[in-house]
Amino acid sequence: MATKDLDHERSRLNDNIRGAMIVVLGSAALVGLAFGAMVVLTSPEGWATKAAQGAMSGESTSLVSLNSGEAQ
After folding, report:
1. Distance between CA atoms of 49 and 43, rounded to whole angstroms?
2. What angle do CA 55, 64, 60 make, to 5 degrees?
3. 42: which residues sit within 8 A by CB, 6+ positions away?
4. Which pTM was predicted?
5. pLDDT in tens, 13-51
6. How far apart are CA 54 and CA 47, in angstroms?
């Protein structure tokens, strides 16, 4: 009977460790995604900054055609 109690405690401890690891890894992933998004959005050479500067200066942007028939 003591063996079953020990196995139950070990199982609960393993579940707690697994849950803690999931929280730590999930938190690290969310912080990494937030940091990456902020780097992309605030970079001086980034596409978001160039689009904002183009909108402020009134420049028109030319669209790129992906039609393969015109590229001869």
Report:
1. 7
2. 25
3. 49
4. 0.52
5. 788 899 999 999 999 999 999 999 888 888 777 777 777
6. 10
User: What's the CA dihedral at 30, 31, 34, 37 to 10 degrees?
Assistant: -100
Q: Are 18 and 10 a contacting pair, CB within 8 Å?
A: no
**Dist. CA 17–CA 9, nearest whole Å:** 12
* Number of residues written out for the chain: 72
Give ∠ CA 30-40-32 in degrees, rounded to 5: 20
| Closest-CA residue to 46 (of 56, 36, 59) | 36
| Cβ atoms of 20 and 27 closer than 8 Å | no
Which alpha helices (DSSP H) does 1-72 contain, by range?
Answer: 2-42, 47-57
Q: Which residues does 41 contact at the CB level (< 8 Å), separation at least 6?
A: 48
